[in-house]
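Fill in residues.
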């Protein structure tokens, strides 16, 4: 009888400890992820698209890989490398009197590298759930290359566009991750990225911002990205 009681207590305590344990605590574990989706470019001369009924052309594709590490249940870090097709345009507003019907769009490609710090909201909300909302911020850089005109040839600006660039960038984003019991998970990732002004090869001088027609005063090139991903914690 005593042995049976001891066995029952041991089983009970074991069950309690199992249920008390966070099933999705990946503290001290690495993870690897692959993701891809759409991207929206906002650079100088974006009016060449939005002002002429071609806003949809600002949406392109991107994808990447990431290696991460969960320091504890609340904080993690991630290193990501991605590839994307970007679009921009030469400034048609400065040439519209001589070329009123022409557009000067171009495309280019990029490799983007970021180191992110990630905060898991579940830990702060004391939730034990398969679904984990997360927020993150990161710093990094990009290499832009493969510039190619996709419309009319600009009579002077195209030759002045830098065809290879390595701008510094920073970003802020959010993740919604759903995990399975085997370490696999799926997620969506929405982020806004900002780069130094030469990301798209055009870097107007200070006096051009807000004074020369077509150049806004905001000194950064922007991207908005939405991705679907698969992650594995190991």
């Amino acid at each position: 009888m005593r042995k049976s009681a001891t066995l029952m207590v041991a089983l009970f305590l074991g069950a309690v400890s199992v249920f008390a344990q966070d099933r999705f605590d990946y503290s001290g574990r690495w993870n690897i992820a692959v993701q891809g989706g759409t991207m929206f470019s906002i650079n100088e001369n974006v009016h060449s698209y939005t002002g002429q009924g071609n806003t949809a052309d600002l949406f392109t594709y991107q994808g990447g890989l990431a290696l991460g590490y969960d320091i504890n249940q609340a904080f993690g870090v991630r290193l990501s490398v991605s590839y994307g097709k970007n679009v921009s345009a030469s400034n048609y507003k400065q040439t519209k009197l001589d070329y009123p019907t022409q557009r000067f769009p171009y495309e280019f490609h990029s490799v983007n590298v970021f180191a992110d710090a990630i905060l898991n909201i579940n830990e702060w909300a004391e939730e034990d759930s398969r679904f984990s909302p997360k927020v993150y911020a990161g710093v990094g850089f990009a290499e832009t290359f493969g510039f190619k005109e996709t419309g009319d040839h600009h009579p002077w600006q195209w030759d002045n566009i830098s065809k290879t660039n390595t701008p510094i960038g920073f970003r802020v984003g959010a993740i919604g991750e759903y995990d399975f019991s085997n370490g696999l998970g799926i997620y969506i990732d929405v982020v806004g990225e900002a780069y130094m002004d030469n990301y798209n090869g055009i870097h107007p001088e200070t006096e051009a911002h807000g004074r020369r027609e077509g150049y806004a005063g905001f000194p950064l090139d922007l991207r908005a990205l939405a991705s679907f991903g698969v992650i594995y914690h190991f």
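Confidence is low (pLDDT under 50) at residues 4-21.
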